[in-house]
Structure formats: C-alpha cells, structure tokens
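Support reply, case 0932

Customer input (verbatim):
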Amino acid sequence: TSTNLHRTLHQQRGYTYLYHAKMKITGEGSNRRAGFYFFTDNAERQNGYMVFIRPDQNTAQLYKYVNGSYSENGGTYTSLSYTINAGQWYDIKITFDTNTGKSTCYVDDIVAVTLTDSNPFTSGECFSLRSAGCNTEYKDIYVSRLRSNNANLTATIGENGDIRTESENGSYAGRIRTILLGNNGMWSDYFEKDVK
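Our regenerated output:
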C-alpha cells in the first residue's frame, strides 16, 4: 500500500487558487515522479487534478482524474518536456482558475505546462501529496486564493476557520501571507503579517 498524505481543504468554484510547494525527488529507478493532487473530491483522489514532475522523462504533467482515471470518463492529461534533475529542489506553483478550468504549472517561476478543462469540477475538498517510484521531500506547502488588488483581508477564527485558535495573552495566533503574480508573469516574494 502507499502512504496517502492529505489535508481536508474546502475549495469552491468562483475563485482562482494557488497551490505552492517546494519538492526534491531522489532515489533509484527509471520512472521517478512526484507532485500533488489539488481541487480533489476526497482523500481517495478519484475526481480532481494532479501535477507530476518526472526527472527520468524530463517532463512536467497536469492531469484531470474522473472516477479514478485520466484516460476515460472525461479524464485527460497533458505533458510537456521540461528539464528536471533528480536531487535538486524545485519550486512548484499551480494556479487553477475554477471558472475557466485553466491550470498552469510553474517550475521555478517559469511556465512548464498548462491544462484547460472545458468542464471543470465545481468544488474540491482535499489536497494530497503524491509520489511513486522515488523518495520525495516536500517543504513550504501553501494554498492561497486569489483576491482583488484592493480587497480587505479578514480571517475567520474557529476549528474550521482560517485560524483555528484565538490568541492567548496577546500572543500571535496566525499569519496572513500574500504573493503577487505581475502582469509581466513574474512572481513576487511572499509578504507576511502576524495577527493576534
């Protein structure tokens, strides 16, 4: 059996999401691959989207799974050549516009592959790491939702909120992060603010 590392994450149509992780693939083999599922229905990952990078084939791939298949029932995938070196850290960002169905995969801030789904899912409830035939390290995993450039930010507090617990004794309870994708296609660094 394989390990299924996942997190419940409510996602809904009407937004653009950013899924961001740093990852490194190592180990022996000729078909090493790793990535993550996003906007997927549950931890079983039967309906949703996935990104894979493959050092042995030097490709970046985006998949749509329908009823557990990317080749039947409306599932699909796209694959483009992209140099991926085993043992090297990569910064992977996926933007997913739930209205247009367009997913864009950035590897080290360069567009590597895109997939447009003409019939996108309307909601997702899970984010899940995925690897096969390799050892994979992940770090700095973030999920963000696009906002307008003049939106006021608020955070809900509670077990199912943006911040799960209230601050105690004036300590910080959470952190709000923002990142920008400029009209020139360049990503900014994260801007952060701790909140009580």
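We compared this against your earlier run and they match. Two observations from our side: The first strand starts at residue 6 and ends at 12. The chain has a mean pLDDT of 90. Please reopen the case if you see a mismatch on your end.
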